[in-house]
Write a structure and sequence with these properties.
The chain is an all-alpha fold. The protein is 85% helix and 0% strand. It has a single domain (2-225), classed as Orthogonal Bundle (MetI-like fold).
C-alpha cells in the first residue's frame, strides 16, 4: 500500500505535513467563520423579514438599508473583497495573511448570502400562522422564535448546509491569496510547481468535506421533519 502511495502520490507523501496542516487551517477557517456568519446572518435575516412592508415590525428604513447593503456585498466577487479590505483586516486582526486573517473577510462575504437564505426560508411561512399568533397576543419576539424559527427549521438547516458548502469554496479561494488551507496547498504548492498529485488530492479532500457537510445536513433535515 505504501509503495502504491509513493508511486502515485510522491509529492503528497513528501509534503504530508503541509497537507495535514492545510486541512487544519481549512477546518480553522470553517469553524470560526461559520460561527460568526451563521449567527450574524440569522439575526439580520430575521430583521429583514420582520421589518419589510407588512412585517410584524415594519420599518422601511431598516429594511431598505439592509437590503441595499446585502446586495452590494453579494455583488462583489470574493477575491476582490478579500484584497480590497486587506488594510481593514490588518487593523482589526493585526495580520493580513494566514488563516486567522481570513476570518473577517470570510464572514463579511458569507453573511449577506446566509441572510438571504434565512429571508427566503422565513418568507415561506404561512401568513395565517403569523396572523393567528398576533391575534393570540404573542409578542414579536415570541412570534419570531415560536413561529418563524420553529416552523422554518428544516428550511434553515437546508440553508445552513448550502451556506457551509459555499463557505468551503470561499476558504479555498482565500487560500490562493495567502490565507492558507487546501486552496493554498493546491494552487501555490501543487499548481505552481506542477505537482498534479497535490492538486488532485486537494480537490478530492474538498469533495469529501462537501459530501460530509451535505450528508450531515440531510440527516438533520430528516430528523427535524419527523
Amino acid at each position: 500500500m505504501s509503495d502504491l502511495l509513493t508511486k502515485y502520490l510522491p509529492n503528497v507523501i513528501k509534503m504530508q505535513d503541509m497537507y495535514f496542516k492545510a486541512i487544519q487551517q481549512t477546518a480553522y477557517m470553517m469553524l470560526y467563520s461559520s460561527i460568526f456568519s451563521l449567527s450574524i446572518g440569522l439575526v439580520l435575516g430575521v430583521v429583514l423579514v420582520v421589518t419589510r412592508e407588512g412585517g410584524i415590525l415594519e420599518n422601511k428604513y431598516i429594511y431598505h438599508s439592509l437590503d441595499k447593503i446585502s446586495n452590494v456585498f453579494r455583488s462583489v466577487p470574493f477575491i476582490i473583497l478579500i484584497t480590497g479590505i486587506l488594510p481593514l483586516t490588518r487593523i482589526l486582526i493585526g495580520v493580513g495573511i494566514g488563516a486567522k486573517a481570513t476570518i473577517f473577510p470570510l464572514t463579511l462575504g458569507c453573511v449577506p448570502f446566509f441572510m438571504r437564505q434565512v429571508d427566503m426560508a422565513l418568507s415561506d411561512i404561512d401568513p395565517g400562522l403569523i396572523e393567528a399568533a398576533e391575534s393570540m397576543g404573542l409578542s414579536p419576539f415570541k412570534i419570531i422564535t415560536r413561529v418563524y424559527i420553529k416552523e422554518s427549521i428544516p428550511a434553515l438547516v437546508r440553508s445552513v448546509t448550502i451556506t457551509l458548502v459555499s463557505l468551503l469554496g470561499l476558504t479555498a479561494m482565500a487560500g490562493t491569496v495567502g490565507g492558507g488551507g487546501l486552496g493554498d496547498f493546491a494552487v501555490n504548492v501543487g499548481h505552481a510547481r506542477n505537482f498534479n498529485d497535490i492538486i488532485y488530492v486537494s480537490v478530492i479532500t474538498i469533495l469529501v468535506i462537501v459530501t460530509l457537510i451535505q450528508g450531515i445536513g440531510n440527516l438533520v433535515i430528516k430528523k427535524v421533519q419527523h
